[in-house]
């Protein structure tokens, strides 16, 4: 409920500020001054002509840039991207975000090279998108989350919530459309169903009220008289002459598919159900039809058939009409997905900025449910969008770009300001432009073009898509691509200088992981990662344990000190807090993971004076601390549940035990860690905690009444 009040408050504030409900005056229009040219907004009221126009521009385009605005990014603080996130975990977090939040604005901007004027022609479009139930009955009903920081960000940049909610373009994904058609065909193939429009509640309608009984008896008489009149060759098309004026107004004769029919006017839904019940019970040669739309009858009818064969023929005709009408509604509900189908069908080069999450949203909203693994996901994405470029990868993968943007300043707005000063700041001096070679970009409206266009609509998806395309065009120029040497259309997809950037996207900007969509493999961007302030040494996921339900206010330094007293001063390389309730601990050796988990379990089972005095007692204080290997973290991230605190998340997922070791089915490490120095030889496997037949640990001893070897560093025991 708070979300609805929040949206309402912001939208009302906007309406007061702008003195209007919808910003329809912001559409593209001819103007002599490019600064007066507003961004073209597309809603459901002007979607059809805008789509027809966009089809032409996309087919002629050399590349298409895009951008999205969403209702949120992370559903819980611990679901944010961390340096300790493995590639498969990073994908699960992106998947969770795409599934929980929705796209409210979609920017598309086709770019076409004009060799005659030596400039790119851009056509920015800003689509308002909003999911709503367009198919009546069993159609999909949407639920989504809102992140207050994201809504506040949108409101700050004058996002029109009214236009989005009231006029936003709805959509069906491909899988939703297929499911709707499948259900429709299933109903149509059910021979026992007389009509798609027949009320499902008719069979449950009972004559229990006196008013219902009297009305049903009156209808039996009136319909019976009408039928008798037909059999006496009453004049076709004449009104039924009843005994009351009220009946004359409600019952009128017409024709439906060349058959005489009785029109039912001014009746309630319950009265119509009672009439349908009367028809089924008392009249074998009459059929109740209630259809809407231009294809079928626009109102309820009682139709006369002269034989069983004629009755069956009528029912088949009605079914066909209803199916055709239902298919038309389903196709109409596809909505904004027509834009996605256009981009997919034309197989153009798609350009985004830090766009892995954007692509996940596109797949989830307009294609189908996101696959469970990143390998399956990239394979599916390639089928629909075979050529994608991430401008953030371009800017961070070339030393000349990093020098230009002064390291780290690769956000879209900063890159646009530095690479496209003639557009971002039209007043920039010609001397500055001479020192920075640039490609001219113009915005075309009708038969007029506008140079140095700056709508001032930063962080609107349409303008951000325009900025992304401009940055890409300038980056291509700096890579040595001379557009003047290419006749339109420019084949950027097969350009040698772009091959190392195509289909390489940042899976996580935090740790510099770049995923190759063609193979599903991840590698660290060596240049880009130098900009990141890596606070931790090389991460080895098999060496990590995760702790949660920790004692309150326990610091990372204190956790490391406790571990070091048991396993040695160099045993812990790093400790990282996910939130106030959970932390990662990375050991220097993989064996310490199982040793710690076994030791923790033993100490908690004994709980004697020796256990209380153990160095780990500070971590285990209160008896609530839980621990597991890294694989459990992945398991928890895969859950659709999102509690605010990690400890609550683990409880909601159903984890009741205190200690657990999960061995990965396939060891997944960062690409640079695959050649780890911790390869296991056969002797070590035979003595590992998992493979030891005797069930005892070779790396440490546990406290007993006679011996407390675990007070001594395990590292010393391992050296023996």
TrEMBL record:
InterPro entries linked to this entry: CAF1_poly(A)_ribonucleases, RNase_CAF1, RNaseH-like_sf, RNaseH_sf
Signal sequence residues: none
Required co-factors: a divalent metal cation
Family (UniProt): Belongs to the CAF1 family.
SUPFAM superfamilies reported in the protein's UniProt record: Ribonuclease H-like (SSF53098)
Protein's name in the database: Poly(A)-specific ribonuclease PARN
């Amino acid at each position: 409920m708070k979300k609805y009040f929040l949206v309402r408050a912001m939208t009302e504030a906007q309406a007061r500020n702008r003195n209007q409900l919808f910003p329809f005056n912001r559409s593209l229009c001819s103007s002599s001054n490019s600064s007066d040219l507003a961004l073209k907004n597309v809603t459901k009221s002007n979607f059809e002509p805008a789509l027809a126009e966009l089809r032409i521009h996309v087919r002629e385009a050399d590349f298409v840039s895009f951008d999205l605005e969403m209702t949120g990014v992370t559903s819980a603080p611990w679901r944010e991207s961390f340096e300790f996130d493995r590639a498969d975990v990073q994908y699960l977090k992106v998947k969770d975000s795409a599934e929980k939040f929705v796209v409210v604005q979609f920017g598309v901007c086709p770019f076409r090279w004009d060799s005659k004027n030596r400039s790119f022609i851009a056509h920015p479009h800003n689509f308002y998108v909003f999911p709503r139930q367009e198919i009546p009955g069993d159609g999909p009903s949407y639920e989504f989350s809102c992140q207050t920081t994201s809504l506040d960000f949108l409101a700050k940049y004058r996002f029109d919530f009214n236009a989005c909610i009231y006029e936003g373009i709805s959509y069906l994904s491909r899988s939703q459309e297929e499911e709707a058609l499948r259900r429709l065909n299933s109903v149509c193939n059910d021979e026992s169903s007389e009509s798609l429009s027949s009320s499902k509640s008719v069979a449950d309608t009972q004559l229990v009220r006196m008013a219902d009984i009297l009305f049903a008896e009156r209808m039996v008489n009136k319909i019976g008289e009408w039928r008798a009149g037909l059999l006496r060759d009453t004049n076709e098309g004449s009104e039924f002459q009843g005994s009351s004026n009220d009946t004359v107004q409600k019952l009128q004769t017409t024709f439906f598919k060349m058959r005489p029919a009785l029109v039912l006017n001014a009746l309630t839904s319950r009265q119509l159900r009672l009439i349908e019940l009367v028809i089924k019970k008392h009249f074998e040669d009459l059929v109740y039809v209630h259809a809407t739309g231009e294809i079928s009858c626009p109102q309820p009818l009682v139709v006369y058939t002269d034989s069983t064969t004629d009755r069956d023929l009528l029912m088949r005709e009605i079914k066909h009409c209803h199916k055709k009408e239902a298919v038309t509604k389903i196709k109409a509900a596809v909505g904004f997905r027509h834009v996605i189908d256009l981009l997919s069908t034309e197989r153009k080069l798609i350009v985004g900025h830090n766009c892995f999450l954007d692509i996940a949203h596109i797949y989830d909203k307009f294609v189908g449910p996101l696959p469970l693994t990143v390998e399956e996901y990239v394979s599916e994405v390639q089928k629909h969008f075979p050529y994608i470029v991430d401008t953030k990868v371009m800017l961070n993968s070339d030393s000349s770009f990093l020098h230009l943007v002064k390291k780290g300043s690769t956000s879209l707005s900063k890159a646009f300001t530095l690479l496209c000063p003639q557009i971002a700041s039209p007043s920039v001096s010609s001397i500055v432009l001479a020192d920075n070679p640039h490609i001219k970009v113009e915005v075309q409206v009708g038969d007029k073009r506008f140079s140095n266009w700056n709508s001032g609509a930063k962080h609107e998806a349409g303008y951000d898509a325009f900025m992304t395309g401009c940055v890409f065009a300038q980056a291509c120029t700096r890579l040595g691509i001379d557009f003047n040497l290419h006749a339109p259309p420019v084949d950027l997809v097969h350009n040698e200088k772009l091959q190392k950037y195509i289909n390489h996207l940042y899976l996580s900007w935090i740790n510099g992981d770049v995923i190759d969509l063609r193979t599903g493999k991840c590698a660290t961007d060596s240049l880009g990662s130098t900009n990141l302030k890596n606070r931790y040494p090389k991460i080895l996921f098999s060496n990590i344990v995760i702790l949660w339900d920790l004692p309150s206010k326990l610091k990372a330094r204190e956790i490391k000190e406790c571990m070091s007293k048991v396993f040695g001063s160099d045993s812990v390389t790093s400790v990282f807090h996910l939130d106030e309730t959970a932390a990662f601990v990375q050991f220097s050796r993989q064996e310490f993971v199982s040793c710690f988990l076994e030791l923790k379990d033993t100490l908690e089972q004994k709980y004697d004076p020796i256990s209380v005095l153990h160095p780990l007692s500070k971590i285990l204080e209160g008896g609530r601390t839980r621990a597991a290997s890294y694989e459990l973290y992945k398991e928890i991230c895969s859950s659709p549940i999102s509690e605010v605190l990690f400890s609550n998340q683990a409880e909601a997922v159903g984890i009741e035990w205190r200690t657990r070791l999960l061995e990965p089915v396939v060891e997944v490490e960062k690409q640079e860690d695959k050649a780890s120095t911790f390869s296991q030889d056969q002797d070590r496997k035979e003595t590992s905690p998992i493979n030891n037949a005797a069930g005892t640990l070779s790396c440490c001893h546990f406290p007993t009444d006679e011996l407390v070897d675990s007070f001594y560093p395990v590292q010393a025991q391992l050296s023996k």
